[in-house]
Design goal:
- It is a single chain.
- By secondary structure, the protein is of the alpha+beta class.
- The protein has a single domain (6-148), classed as Roll (SH3 type barrels).
- It has four helices and seven strands.
- It has helices at residues 6-28, 51-56, 118-121, 138-144; strands at 36-41, 60-65, 70-74, 78-85, 88-95, 99-104, 109-112.
- The strands form two sheets. Strands 2-1-6-7 form a four-stranded antiparallel sheet, with helices on one face.
- A hairpin with a 3-residue loop joins strand 3 (70-74) and strand 4.
Amino acid sequence: MADMNYKVLIENAMLNMVRDILKKVSKYGLPKNHHFLITFFSHSKGVVIPHWMKEKYPDKMTIIIRNWFEDLNVTEKKFEISLNFNNNVERLIIPFNSLELFADPSVDFAISFNQVNSSQSGEIERDEAPSDKTATKKEDSSKKRKNVIDLKNFKK
């Protein structure tokens, strides 16, 4: 039997949690003041975003699911959503294995994801090199990664 790769197991569990959260939102809508910040790697395999977004965000992009969104469709491997960008509705397809960060500032919750290579895990596939973090509190994440949004800025 191969060694247990706990980091990969935790990563998969967290991705499943995000999938379950988005499935509930697609069925029931966002509860109360909840809203999500989702950062993903825009060049990852399976990401479908408009050309102008790929030019503007060639590496990473953060979307906010808050007041208005349409047609949130969640499958086992990806989610699709229509969001408003500069008064234009755009359809995005984002595979779960492209996620770097999922946060809900309304409850001070954030998790970040490793950049695991498929040769290491067989489950999660990334286009980036491995990173050293699996799950962090927002404080750790914002100190170590300048691309993570400080959730304090979204507090009311």
